[in-house]
Amino acid sequence: MASIAVRNLLHDKVRLTVTLTGIIFAVVLVAVQTGLFLGFTTTTTNVIDNSRADFWVTSRNVDYIEAGVPFPEKQMYHALAVPGVAEAQKYIVRFGILKKPDGANANCEIVGFDPERPFGGPWNVVEGDVRSLTLPDTVMLDRFYMKKLGVTHLGQTVEIRNIRARVVGFTKGIRTFTTSPLIFTSYKNAQKYSALDSDQTMYLLVKAAPGADLVRLRAGLQAAMDNVDVLPTREFSRRTNFYWMFGTGAGLTVIIAAVLGLIVGIVVVAQTIYAATVDHIREFGTLKAMGATNGYIYRIILNQAIVSAIAGYAVAIVIASAVEYSSRGGGANIVLPASVRVGLFGLTLFMCVSAALVSINKVTKIDPALVFKG
Amino acid sequence: MDSAIEVRELTKVYAEGATAARALDNVDLDVNRGEVLLLMGPSGSGKTTLVSIMGCILRATAGSVKIGGREVAHLPERALPVVRLNNIGFVFQGFNLFPALTAAENVEVALDLKGIRGSAAHKRSRALLEEVGLADKVNSFPGDLSGGQKQRVAIARALAGDPEIILADEPTAALDKTSGRVVMEMLRSLASRRGRAVAIVTHDNRVMEYADRIVHIEDGKVGAVLTRNEAMQFSGAEA
């Protein structure tokens, strides 16, 4: 029976090509749109998600990471006094202006942290050492933005707010939603680059002691500090993501595109699988005449759909991966983690099997006289 | 006579109300074991409807159909595939072979439905193809076979379930004279030598010589029922 399904598929190469093309088109479309959406969501929150902090202390009602408002840095000492706090550090995320070697200006996001501490710093460092940032006027940036910032090599000097900034390291794959490159530097440098008063900070990052009750710790931190919000890292990430995705039109556009991609994909797959089944309707009618139960025929149709789904997905995921890979050097950031790939496989199966179920409905209503027509 | 199929007061009406069309009207007919019965008549006379109901593919509006003495006209839909599988083999005008499968695999599909698989199915399919003179075509695809050969594969497939009834719809219509003769001889032999009940829908007067009885259907009603000799005389006189 499985053999009939596979042989039916392989017999008509043109039909098979059309069916697989439909599935591949649909899966690539959904994959790319989903990847774009994930890419956007990832880039809006990557600084938060990679901070390795347990809590972010922010000024009141900060909607997203770029909207932080300075508050007194002495709050850090109140935080450190709360039982269950292992470490705390002052943290800056603020827009700045970088002067390129050719004299032109470029927007950037200054990220100031303590290079001596194992959290809050850059990730995916491919050249240089984070500890080099303890030196005055040193910065790290992502290779992707080198051209945009006019940086050509390690050790090159640029200016931020008319203060020199020597490039001592590069990261790879750290993109931003705002398109302003992240400039990692020490907290002290960041204060200068972003013109922040010396007794102010934008955020505090807090790490809990091992085994600490995070709910109680959050309450303790909140009680110990005035006029700030204490947000678990995940919550601040969600809040930032929500702002960019839904507070602005940008995210919604991507979501609509992803949903449209999904709908178009389902329609394309449904149409191709349905057409493939209808092409064999006479054979199914013959099987019925021979005494096959509806269940027997359903299994053939479902087998065809499953084999088509597997073959289509296999090709589509290779294409989608190629698109994802090529996006690393381009403007759009497409992210396809393993969970999405697995989900896409499930979706492909779902689309193909659903389409097959629609065509099964057609098979149950086969005109018996069909088999007697010459 | 020993009836494999007994049809009594069979009526089939398509659609309802003003658009209702009476395809069969109070038909009584027996198809006996060991007999070749031809169903003849003009297009639209109800022949295919009758053979579809006898084959448990189509439901009757009223009346009785007995297969091997068992009433099947009022069986629920889900019970009919088993009746077809165990009692009836079909031979179609268009052969209705699966183009993606070889001759042997086409026969094995019918065996698969009966639960016969693997080496037993291979052996049986080859034996059946040998029986219809296609031992050297077991691995050929339908597209590589002549019309006559395709119809012989279809006959082998119809015999796979060892049915007592063979229902054939215009089995020679798509064949040349020689191939048609071979196919009819095979169907004749199934009735004479193996005691099958063979009912054939046909427009082809040439096949009358293979029949025991010829039943004329017109406007959904059984008309003349003639023996082979009577029919051939009548046909000759008409000519």
Give an overview of the whole structure:
The complex is a heterodimer of chains A (374) and B (239). Chain A is α+β, with helices and mostly antiparallel strands. Chain A is 51% helix and 19% strand. Chain A contains eleven helices and twelve strands. Chain A has helices spanning 2-11, 13-49, 75-80, 146-149, 187-193, 214-224, 233-247, 249-279, 281-290, 294-327, 338-364, and strands at 55-59, 71-72, 85-99, 105-113, 125-128, 138-142, 157-160, 163-171, 182-186, 200-201, 203-208, 228-232. The model of chain A has no long low-confidence stretch (mean pLDDT 89). Chain B is of the alpha/beta class and 239 residues long. Helices cover 35% and strands 27% of the residues of chain B. Chain B contains seven helices and ten strands. Chain B has helices at 47-54, 80-87, 103-113, 118-131, 147-160, 177-194, 228-238, and strands at 3-14, 21-32, 36-40, 62-67, 70-71, 88-91, 165-169, 197-201, 213-218, 221-227. In chain B, the strands form two sheets. In chain B, strands 6-7-8-3-9-10 form a six-stranded mixed sheet. In chain B, a hairpin with a 2-residue loop joins strand 9 (213-218) and strand 10 (221-227). The mean pLDDT of chain B is 91. At the A-B interface, helix 1 and helix 9 of A face helix 1, helix 2 and helix 3 of B.
Q: What labels would you give this structure?
A:
heterodimer, A: 374 residues, alpha+beta, 2 domains, ten-stranded mixed beta sheet, two-stranded antiparallel sheet, 11 helices, 12 strands, B: 239 residues, alpha/beta, Rossmann fold, four-stranded antiparallel beta sheet, 10 strands
